[in-house]
Specification:
The complex is a heterodimer of chains A (358) and B (139). Chain A has 358 residues and is an alpha/beta fold. Chain A contains nine helices and 17 strands. The longest helix of chain A is centred in the N-terminal third of the chain and has 16 residues. Classes of the chains: A alpha/beta (358), B mainly alpha (139). At the A-B interface, loops of A face loops of B.
């Protein structure tokens, strides 16, 4: 056998440590112990793969997606499927979407895709749909009804403004803090479709909505916002077990509005500040949320990651796999309190200095 | 005679001093609303330039821009500099941290600390953080 040098040894043992440290014992959807319908799924989002020129892509963002794919493949038991929460690309270029899908093809589980604004605004989703099919659909899995929405549409006036090129429109929407941007929405057509889709779903069925935008109104200045959020909430109102999982915000957020639990997922690319840290803005960050740690930029994967999800009695528990200096977090539905709680930090006395954002 | 000459020298020095201080006082006070407006315009022009550089105007080859991690300059905390940057093991100014970002996530070349581009970036970052109290050294 070839002798390993020190560097190779550290690299290889690093891989074993990563495998061993995944909290794999938590990955069951629990309808009850040993229930035949138990299952788990993974959730990867916001990779923002960026094409430079020719075959060159931004290394940093490639690394994030590759790591998520490698780690998701280590899950044991195997996830039934993986959800990809949107923003495969940075500027919606076919090169970016294709390169991201090449990397994701390494996943050993089927993938359900959600459209993000960075995938959409250059060609209004044409290349994405060509590769992946419809941008809104529903499916049932072991007693749970899943609805996938394209929630990054906007006002038609803005969308069909006199843009010189699709790329001009894309660059406007790609800039998060753009004062000339336009708010996200699901739109009437999809809401009509959703109403019809839900017509056949019993009110005691757990419903999980997969969306890129938050389906809440958090901070309009950065489009942490969905213009017709209340109308979607109304459609979900009859369901006792309703959950929304969303990407876009690159940070931990969770919330409870009436019967609906909301959870964001992490980006694999980079973290975003909480809107409250913008001194000139006013945000409505959910009061329940215990923030993730402030990112250390010297560790390029810090405050990024992916997650796996189980449904406890039809409500989700979110297991955040956080990279570098952020410890893994578990946000679980608490049936007594009727909302999600962080299993370690929810009590204000338990919070730690890195969770202070200013 | 000697005494008289000395007195007159003292007087001359005193009157020169008075004249100088009067002149300076007049100069210091003499700026107008128009001046203020122009100085503010000069500053806001630097903010505008900084805004453009911050949002993809640095021309770095990998195309990554400052606002991708720092929308509206958030999470840059200019009011806390200079501070002990624990990852660098020393007290640094915000200019040095801006250069760290340009060299690492942006994979670009650092700017001289008095480069007009560096000044403009700082003008933009501070402007977005206006009205926040100074907290030098805070982590």
């Amino acid at each position: 056998m070839k002798k390993l040098n020190r560097r190779q040894f550290i690299q290889r043992s690093g891989a074993f440590v990563a495998a061993a440290s995944l909290p794999v014992s938590l990955v069951e959807i629990a309808f009850g112990k040993d229930h035949p319908q138990n299952f788990t799924f993974g959730f990867i989002s916001d990779s923002h793969i960026t094409h430079i020129k020719g075959k060159e892509f931004v290394r940093n963002w490639d690394q994030g997606l590759k790591r998520a794919v490698a780690e998701a493949n280590l899950m044991d038991p195997k996830p039934d499927f993986i959800v990809y929460g949107g923003d495969l690309a940075q500027l919606g270029k076919p090169e970016e979407i294709d390169h991201a899908l090449d990397m994701l093809s390494g996943l050993r589980a089927p993938v359900k895709y959600v459209m993000g604004e960075h995938d959409y605004y250059v060609d209004l989703g044409a290349h994405w749909r060509k590769r992946l099919g419809p941008d809104h659909y529903s499916f049932d899995h072991k007693g749970v009804h899943f609805i996938v929405l394209n929630s990054i549409l906007t006002y038609k006036d803005w969308m069909h403004k006199n843009w010189k090129t699709g790329m001009d429109r894309m660059k406007q929407m790609a800039r998060l803090d753009n004062p000339n941007g336009s708010p996200f929405m699901v739109g009437e057509e999809q809401r009509r479709w959703m109403k019809k889709d839900l017509a056949g779903v019993a009110h005691d069925t757990p419903v999980v909505v997969l969306s890129h935008s938050p389906l809440q109104k958090i901070y309009k200045g950065w489009n942490f916002w969905t213009e017709d959020a209340e109308k979607i909430h109304a459609l979900l109102k009859p369901y006792k077990k309703a959950t929304v999982l969303y990407g876009h915000v690159h940070q931990i957020q969770y919330n409870q509005i009436d019967n609906i639990s909301f959870h964001s997922v992490m980006a694999t690319a980079w973290p975003w500040p909480y809107p409250a840290s913008y001194a000139q803005g006013v945000s409505h960050i959910p009061k329940l949320t215990v923030p993730m740690n402030r990112a250390d930029p010297f560790f390029e994967r810090d405050a990024t990651g992916w997650q796996f999800i189980n449904l406890h009695s039809g409500k989700v528990d979110l297991n955040y796999v956080l990279w570098e200096n952020n410890k893994n977090r578990v946000v679980r539905f608490d049936p007594d309190k009727g909302h999600p709680v962080d299993t370690e930090y929810q009590d204000p006395a338990k919070r730690i200095p890195p969770q202070e954002h200013y | 005679m000697k005494k008289q000459r000395a007195q007159s020298t003292i007087l001359k020095i005193l009157s020169l001093g008075t004249a100088m201080s009067l002149t300076c006082a007049v100069w210091a006070d003499e700026f107008t609303q128009e001046d203020l407006q122009r100085w503010n315009q000069e500053f806001m022009a630097a903010v505008k330039t900084g805004d453009k550089l911050f949002h993809g105007g640095l021309g770095n080859a990998n195309t990554v821009s400052c606002d991708q991690c720092h929308p509206n300059g958030a999470n840059t905390h200019p009011e806390t500099y200079p501070k002990f940057q624990q990852q660098l093991g020393k007290v640094v100014t915000i200019g040095e941290m801006i250069n760290w970002c340009i060299q690492n996530p942006l994979e670009g070349k650092p700017l001289a600390l008095d480069d007009p581009k560096m000044v403009a970036l700082q003008a933009y970052i501070y402007w977005e953080r206006r009205n926040v109290p100074l907290q030098p050294g805070k982590h």
